[in-house]
Design brief:
Arc Repressor Mutant, subunit A, about 200 residues, HTH_TetR (chains A, B), about 0% strand, TetR/AcrR family transcriptional regulator (chains A, B), elongated, DNA-binding, homodimer, Tet_transcr_reg_TetR-rel_C_sf (chains A, B), 2 domains, DNA-binding (chains A, B)
Chain lengths: ~200, ~200
DNA sequence: AACGAGGTACACTGATCTGTAAAGTGTGTT
DNA sequence: AACACACTTTACAGATCAGTGTACCTCGTT
């Protein structure tokens, strides 16, 4: 409930939507501090006045950007999960999370949008709450995927944290390295990790 | 050689040192974009003129900040490794890397300085090369620590990558969460990981 | 005594930053 | 006809940004 409202942007007018999409693209590629509101207005084909009428402040726009980013990520992942054959194992479903990064390289070129935002936003910025909510949602999702068919003896929460940290490390370095080799490597690690788990069934 | 020069700042005058120390503190706490050169000059008790005479540009100063940051991190870690009893296992030595984060909380409050910098710096910024060199040095170090007494059957490089990703994920989230619980958890995961490895000797 | 190096003081440039003021246009609804 | 709404245009405020020019001071070295 709290999380849902934190991760869902308010209803938007057409113009606001265009501003937000433009802001999302620019914020992700160049960072939030590096992009001015004038640039956003200009590139979206709307005016700064509209931007402020709709969003109130650059900080609020940045927070909305993170909400949009979460929404897109979540949708892409759910679509990928839905595409799996019925009865897909927990392992296959968790690996689909990694694939959603390696296969959509354009949207991961600069690493994790949420980590990047947290890196440059002060503690009191409204976007930081969105970042925390997003990360909590990812951990929770991994926990749910793992609890569906895993052995009752395994600690699903701990395993989810392990997979989560591998994922985070790999995605972050996707933004530092020039390629996705760490994502591929992390995927293999998780495959091993969950393979061993299943072997102990 | 290349790496060493990338990670070592040039010799500095006393004033330059004070400017750099001040910049390091402010850049880490608030981000590079968020801190102006006027603030750095003022807080270091020197003038902006001196800053530019010594460093030439803010970009160069930011790159030097990352070099200093790496140097301090490396020294702290070497001291911690030197404090270990002689004949300490690879596991103990790798875990010391994690301890260097959990036990020096002030310098990790905002997560990984290098990841944070990469998040806000454009691809062509000189600091990015320092970030990559630093991360390479960390992976290499882990690989060396692990190869010292591990079983010959294990793939040290792959194990080092695994530990590295857990470390990276945990340190990054140290800057997002309010506590170091993920660092503690990651340390335990590595303990397990290397424990199993030793059990297969 | 001369000189260079490190540093100070301070005014300044030109650009860019977030945010606001004021007045007006077009469209659809009641 | 009246009104709300989304949005426009132009202009501006006030701050801050990185970076420079110039003149001067104080050392230690030669």
């Amino acid at each position: 409930m709290t999380t849902a409202s934190l991760l869902t942007p308010p209803p938007l007018t057409d113009g606001a939507r265009r501003i937000l999409d433009t802001a999302a693209r620019l914020f992700y590629s160049h960072g939030i501090h590096a992009v001015g509101v004038d640039t956003i207005a200009e590139e979206s084909g709307l005016t700064k006045r509209t931007l402020y009428d709709r969003f109130g402040s650059k900080d609020a726009l940045a927070a909305a950007y993170l909400q949009v980013r979460h929404g897109e990520w979540w949708e892409r992942l759910e679509a990928r999960l839905a595409d799996l054959p019925t009865g897909a194992s927990a392992q296959e479903r968790v690996l689909a999370v990694f694939d959603s990064y390696t296969l959509d390289s354009a949207s991961t070129e600069r690493g994790c949008a949420f980590v990047n935002a947290a890196a440059e936003l002060p503690a009191e910025h409204p976007g930081r709450a969105v970042v925390r909510a997003h990360k909590q949602a990812v951990v929770d999702l991994l926990g749910e995927l793992l609890s569906e068919d895993a052995a009752p003896t395994t600690d699903h929460a701990a395993l989810a944290e392990h997979v989560f940290l591998l994922l985070e490390g790999a995605v972050v370095h996707r933004g530092i390295d020039d390629d996705d080799h760490r994502l591929v490597a992390a995927r293999a690690m998780v495959e091993d990790l969950l393979g061993e788990d299943r072997a102990s069934d």
